[in-house]
Amino acid sequence: MTSEASFYDRIGGHQVFENLASHFYALVTQDPILRPMYPPEDLGAAARRLMLFLEQYWGGPKTYGEERGHPRLRARHAAFHIDEEARVAWLRCMKSAVDEIECEQSLKDELWSYLEGAAQFLVNQPQ
Ligand code: HEM
Asked: Does the beta carbon of 68 lie inside 6 Å of ligand 1?
């Protein structure tokens, strides 16, 4: 692998993002704060959207954009009541999913710091 390999490749490619999204959504189904915010069934489709978005963000395939257009994450989350409690719950599920990845710690740290910042950015309710 060359030094020009994308983050997507360096962290392990498709399988890593698929595992991350499916682990995350398995935890969402058990979370009393998050579960009611998500579609009543078919969390598989939601897991796929998150997986495709993260793959594209980190330099992998651009399938998300082909299927969904510009991510516009703030706008797409406007319909949901995202307060501090929801942010913490989302990150708790995501932390557990990120912890499962087997890769260099520095890659994990980079991924995690992005996710923390993005979650903060998506809070849309005042304290
Ligand atoms: C801060 C807490 C967050 C909450 C409570 C939350 C909640 C939700 C909900 C309820 C959905 C709809 C599920 C669906 O049908 O797709 C959704 C979609 C999505 N979320 Fe979040 N989210 C949060 C943070 C994030 C973060 C940090 C990211 C990215 C790093 C993200 C990326 C996405 C994506 C890509 C979609 C699908 C958008 C689409 O194409 O429709 N979310 N989120």
From this structure: yes
Residues 90-123 pLDDT 10s = 999 999 999 999 999 999 999 999 999 999 999 9
Contacts of 23 (CB under 8 A, 6+ apart): 96, 97, 100
Nearest-CA residue for ligand 1 atom 11 is: 38
What distance in angstroms lies between residue 53's CA and the mean position of ligand 1's atoms?
10
- Ligand 1, atom nearest to 79 Cα: 10
Asked if residue 126 has its Cβ within 6 Å of ligand 1, the reply is no
Q: Could you tell me the pLDDT band of residue 3, with boundaries at 50, 70 and 90?
A: low
In the chain the domains, ranked by start, together with CATH numbers, are 8-122 (1.10.490.10)
Largest CA distance in the chain: 46
28 Cβ contact partners less than 8 Å away, ≥ 6 residues apart? 34, 35, 38, 43, 93
